[in-house]
Structures are given as structure tokens and as C-alpha cells.
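Long-time lurker, first post. I've been practising inverse folding by hand and with some scripts of my own, and I keep getting stuck on stretches where the C-alpha cells seem ambiguous. Below is the full C-alpha cell string for one chain I'm working on. Before anyone asks, I'm not after the true native sequence, just a reasonable design that respects the backbone. If someone could post their per-position residues I'd love to compare against what I wrote down in my notebook.
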């Protein structure tokens, strides 16, 4: 049975990922600090520290993949009819002959990737809160859609 200190450290390990909204890379730095402080002394903290880091690395991977899909597609569709010379020479350029019906497939794929990214970030926030609640109750929680980078 886990004692209160172990539950609190594991819970704060989950909640420390929310620092990403205030401190760049806080979602990696603070969980690593909390996890590494007690991972050798508590299996409960070790399990949850690995879960937090695996989930954050998985979310990073999924975010990069959606960005690699969305950004080039949206840029190509917007700047398809703009000459490269106008962009390089910083002239006032006008998008000519832009027809949305010719680009609807690419736009749909790009906007779907943007939508998936938004859903991923909302799900991440609520899953962190849910995991913290489960952990504070002494339960072992595994995040869904997580790739086990750290075993």
C-alpha cells in the first residue's frame, strides 16, 4: 500500500505537466525532477513518472506529425498561385486565380490535421487531471494512446 507521501509525489508528477502553459518544456522538466527524486524508493512513483513522461513524449510526437501534415498543405494551398519572385523581393503580391474548389481536398486534409491537434491538446489537459485524481486515490493509471518509450 502506498503512503500519502508517495501518492502526493505521483499526483504532483502528473500535475507538473501543466506547467507547459507557463514555462517552456515545463511538461518535461518538472516531471523528470519529481520522478527522479523518488523513483528508486517507490515503485508507485516510478510507475507514474514513466507514464507521465511516455504520455508527454507521445503527445509531442503526435503534435509534430499533425504539424508536418497541416503546415505544408495549408501553405501550398494559400501560396499556390503566388510567384516566388514576388515573395523573395518583398513586393506587394496578390493571390490571383485562387479557386477553393480546386484545392478542397488539400484544404480538408490540412484543416483535419489542425482539428486533430486541437482535440489532442484538449484531451491531454483532461487526461492529466483525470490521471492526477486516479493517482491521488492510490490507483495505477495508464494514459491511453501512449507509446511506451521508457519501460
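-- Answer (accepted) --
I ran through it position by position. Result:
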Amino acid at each position: 500500500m502506498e503512503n500519502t507521501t508517495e501518492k502526493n509525489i505521483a499526483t504532483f508528477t502528473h500535475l507538473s505537466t501543466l506547467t507547459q502553459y507557463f514555462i517552456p518544456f515545463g511538461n518535461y522538466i518538472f516531471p523528470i525532477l519529481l520522478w527522479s527524486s523518488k523513483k528508486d524508493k517507490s515503485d508507485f512513483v516510478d510507475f507514474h513518472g514513466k507514464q507521465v513522461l511516455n504520455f508527454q513524449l507521445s503527445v509531442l510526437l503526435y503534435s509534430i506529425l499533425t504539424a508536418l501534415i497541416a503546415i505544408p498543405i495549408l501553405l501550398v494551398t494559400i501560396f499556390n498561385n503566388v510567384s516566388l519572385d514576388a515573395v523573395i523581393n518583398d513586393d506587394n503580391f496578390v493571390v490571383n486565380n485562387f479557386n477553393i474548389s480546386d484545392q478542397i481536398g488539400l484544404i480538408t486534409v490540412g484543416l483535419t490535421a489542425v482539428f486533430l491537434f486541437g482535440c489532442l491538446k484538449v484531451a491531454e489537459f483532461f487526461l492529466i487531471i483525470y490521471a492526477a485524481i486516479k493517482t491521488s486515490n492510490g490507483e495505477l493509471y495508464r494514459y491511453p494512446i501512449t507509446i511506451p518509450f521508457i519501460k
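A couple of notes from the structure itself: The chain has five helices and no strands. Helices lie at 4-15, 26-38, 43-78, 84-88, 104-136. Happy to go over any region you disagree with.
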